Amino acid sequence: MTTDERLARLERQCRLFKTGFALTAITLVTVLLVGAGQDQEKAKLPVFEEVCAKRFVVMAEDGTPRGALAAERYGASLQLHDSKKEVQAELSVRTRLEGSAIGSIVAGAGLTMDSYGSRIDILNTPGIPQIAVSNGEFSAHLAVPKEGPTLVFGAKDGKVIFKAPQ
User: Fold this and answer.
1) 65: how many CB neighbours lie within 10 A of its CB?
2) Chain segment 94-140, per-residue pLDDT in tens
3) What radius of gyration do the chain's Cα atoms show?
4) Is residue 33 within a helix (H) or strand (E), and if so which, with residue range?
5) Strand (E) positions, the chain?
6) Which of 64, 134, 138, 159 is the most exposed, fewest CB within 10 Å of its CB?
7) Is the pTM of the predicted complex or chain greater than 0.70?
């Protein structure tokens, strides 16, 4: 094989590589343009009249839940979570509030702040505004019904330490 033949073969291979590269580039650009067009179509998401679910969870980029809107056993709640997945605040409407400072009590609309073992419940039950505070070991509950205010201090085991009026 002469030098001229080798040079001609090398030029043909070079043209083939250039043509292959050009076709690959054109294919890639076409795929990207088609994909970009589909993303714009996806951006126009349908609007539904109603979406039914038992729970919606808002996730951070790292997958950590940061909030939730949920239908629960005794009502509904909106929760806000910290980076450790712990509920820091909760707005709820419930017929019964379980795990409150003095056990399970009838509730209406309320705000619960629950963090690091401490909990504060501010409730507006029908005709009885209430505040319950707990540190996990002890609790205090103030209610103001039409008959007059009540104050209860209790322990974790459910034992009443102080109650007024008696």
Assistant:
1) 13
2) 665 554 444 444 445 667 776 667 778 787 777 788 888 888 888 89
3) 33
4) helix 3-43
5) 55-59, 65-72, 75-81, 87-94, 96-100, 103-106, 109-115, 118-125, 128-134, 138-143, 150-155, 160-164
6) 159
7) no
